[in-house]
C-alpha cells in the first residue's frame, strides 16, 4: 500500500463493491439555512446556530420535531445537546462529529447520508457556527486552541520557528507549487478575481459591493509571502445549517431535493496537520486525490460530467491544485485552467465557487459552499448555471478531506 | 534576514507539545549538543521523518538515531509579514530545508536576505540560542 501511495495508484480491488454503496441516491439535502455573514455578529455561536437550523427547517418545510440527528464539527464550540434544548427538538437517535477543521465540511454529509442509508435516522442536521472574525481568529496563535494545544510532537518541530497558523502552513505548499509550475502572483490573482465576480452577484456575500481587479490583487499587502491579502479567505462570523433527509422523505417536502449521488472522505499516508511537508512531492494534495478517486468510483461520474463546482478555498492556490487532484486537468495545469478566468467563471466550462465562496462570500468552514451547491441544483443561485445537473463540493485541504456530488 | 524576537515574549517551546508524545525528544537532545539527529528504520533504512513509533514502509518498530551532516538545500520558503505570534518580529522567513540525507525540516535562516533566498539554494546548519532554555537549528549560506 505504501508504494502504491507513492505512485498514486488507486487500487479498486480492495474497495467495497460499487453495488454495495448504499449512499447513492438514498438521501438528499432538503433544507439550507444561514445567518447573515458579518465581521461581528454580536451574539454567541449557539444563538447563530439555532437561528441557522430554524431557517433550514423552515426552508425544508419540516417540523422541528422531525429532526432526529445531528452532525457537528469537532472544532465547533456548540453541541447538539444544547442546540436541541434551545430549539425544542424532543429526541435524537443519531449524532456524530467530524474532525480536521474544514476537512469536515463534506464529511458531515458523508455521516448523515450513511446514517440515513443505514436506517439509523431520517432527518439530520449538519451545521457549523463560528465567530471567526470577532472571536478567535485562525491566523493568530491563540485563535486555534484545539489545534495548538494538541499533544502533537510535530508542532514542537515547527512552531518554535514561528511557522505558525494555517496561512503560513499553506504558503509553504503554495511557494513550492508556484515554483514547480512557474506560476506568478498574477496567475493566482485570477482565482480571487473570479470568486469576487461571483460574490458581486450575491447580496449575502461580505464582498458583495466590492469589485476586485487583478491589479489590486497583485498590489495588495503581503500577508505571508507568497500569499497576499486577497489570496486569503475572509474571516467571518456566521452559521450555516444543512438538512439531509431520506430520498423518500425528500420527495414530500417543500424544496426540490438535491440528491446525494456520492459522499466520500480521503486520508493519505505520511500526513501532518496542514504541514505534510515530508512526502516525496508537496505540490499536490493527495487526500483530495483519494477523495476524488473514490467519488468518481462510487458515483460512476467523471469530472467532465460536473456542471458546477464549489472548491474549498481557504487560500487561492488551493483551487488550481484541486482542479488537478479532482481530475479536471492534468497535474501542473491547474493554473492554466484558472488564468484569465474564462474557464472557471459563470458561463465557462466549469463555473467554480459561484457564491463567491470563502475568498469573497464568507468563511464558514465549507458549509456555505454546500449551501451554494444546493442552490445550483434548485436553480436559485445568484450566479446560476443553466440546467445544472451535477454539482460538486469539496472539503478543506492539507488535512483528511471530503467531497460530495449532488444531482437534481 | 534572521528572526528577531520580542524579548518579553516566550518563544513556543517544543516541550509544550511533547507532553504525551515523546518521539522527537532525541532530536531536541541532539540540538543541545549542536547536532541534527534523524530517525531511521533499522530494518529497511527508511527515514522516519517526522519521528514515528513505527516504520510506515516495513512496520518495524526498531529504529536508530543518526547525526545528519547538517547540509542541504532550500526546498520551499515563506515570509511572515504579519506575525501570528507575539514572540516574533516581522518580517521573518520560515524555510523548509531538504537535508542532503533526504528528510526535510522546518527552520529559519540566518543572515540571508529574503530577496536572495530561493528554492534550491545550498545551506548549512547553525545553532542559535534563542532563549535560556531553547537552542534552535537554523540555516545559513554554505561557506
Can you describe what's shown?
The complex is a heterodimer of chains A (408) and B (143). Chain A is built from 15 helices and eleven strands. Chain A is of the alpha/beta class and 408 residues long. In chain A, helix 2 packs across helix 3. The mean pLDDT of chain A is 94. In chain B, the strands form three sheets. A five-stranded antiparallel sheet of chain B has the order 7-6-4-8-9, with no helix packed on it. In chain B, strand 8 (122-131) and strand 9 (134-141) form a beta hairpin. Helices cover 6% and strands 38% of the residues of chain B.
Give short descriptive properties of this protein:
heterodimer; A: 408 residues; alpha/beta; Peroxisomal Thiolase, Chain A, domain 1; nine-stranded mixed β-sheet; two-stranded antiparallel ribbon; 11 strands; globular; B: 143 residues; mainly beta; OB fold (Dihydrolipoamide Acetyltransferase, E2P); 2 domains; five-stranded antiparallel β-sheet; two-stranded antiparallel sheet; 1 helix; 6% helix
What does the secondary structure layout of this molecule look like, with pairings?
The complex is a heterodimer of chains A (408) and B (143).
Chain A: H1 2-6, E1 27-34, H2 45-60, E2 69-73, H3 80-87, E3 94-98, H4 105-117, E4 123-131, H5 145-148, H6 153-156, H7 165-180, H8 185-199, H9 214-219, E5 222-225, E6 227-228, E7 237-246, H10 247-250, E8 258-266, H11 286-299, E9 308-310, H12 318-325, H13 334-338, H14 357-361, H15 367-378, E10 390-394, E11 401-407
Parallel strand pairs in A: 2-3, 2-4, 9-10
Antiparallel strand pairs in A: 1-7, 1-8, 4-7, 5-6, 8-11, 10-11
Chain B: E1 4-5, H1 25-32, E2 37-41, E3 63-67, E4 71-80, E5 88-89, E6 92-99, E7 104-107, E8 122-131, E9 134-141
Antiparallel strand pairs in B: 1-5, 2-3, 4-6, 4-8, 6-7, 8-9
